[in-house]
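Hey forum,

I'm writing up a methods section and want to include a predicted complex as supplementary material. The small molecule is zinc ion. I've pasted the protein sequence and the SMILES. Can someone with a working setup run it? I'll credit the forum in the acknowledgements.
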Amino acid sequence: MSLIPEWYNPNVLQDLGFGDVVRMRKSHPCGGYEWQVVRLGADIGLECLTCGRRILLERRSLKNRMKMIVCQGGDSDSENG
Ligand SMILES: [Zn+2]
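Reply by user p_vandermeer:
Happy to help. Structure tokens for the complex are below, copy them as they are.
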């Protein structure tokens, strides 16, 4: 069998950028669903937009837990005023 699980790919979530906001499938105990990316690396650092708590997740864990990217940070390309 040569089928490689999607989460095994190191490029999983390569579209994710600093400052992006993601929505999770399950809510945080505080009731919030949306998290902002505060760190990019082998692990992804996320800050809860509701209570401010920070967590670290492996890319594949985040891939499994997140539902969608709500908005992309885009500090660099804000030309369209
Ligand atoms: Zn929270």
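Some notes you might quote in the supplement: The two ends are 51 Å apart (CA to CA). Residues 59-65 form the longest helix (7 residues).
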